[in-house]
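Box 3.1 A note on notation
Throughout this textbook, protein chains are presented in two layers. The first layer is the amino acid sequence; the second is a token string describing backbone geometry. Keep the layers aligned when reading.
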Amino acid sequence: MAHNTLTYTYSDLDLDFTKHAVSKDVAKMYDTEAIKRSVRHLVYTMHYERPFHPEIGCMVHSLLFENATPLTAVAVQRTIEDTLNNLEPRIRLLDVMVIPQEDENAYNITIVFNIVTRNEPVELSLMLKEVR
């Protein structure tokens, strides 16, 4: 299906670098999928990881070395909320739910937001786990 960029509000490159069927160029993602990808990347990116933009990122990785407890889950939640409120102007954050998986020292995260040009909630689920 060909996408007409005039009918979409937001677009971004598909970072899986899949080829567009017709143009053979890197495919694009649009609207909800592009913003979900951006939110996911903001949470997973550490500060100083992006060249020339050390301010982009989330400090949540530093919390992954703590035990997965309800108290640490609150810190993870606040860190994600601060990051998204400060760095993703295309969304209005509705809720961030963080459920610690104490046996795995990991967190199940659900982020619910509205895209500013729409009034429909979008839900994104992530798993944060310490990688050794």
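The CA atoms of residues 91 and 116 lie 5 Å apart. The chain has one domain: 5-129.
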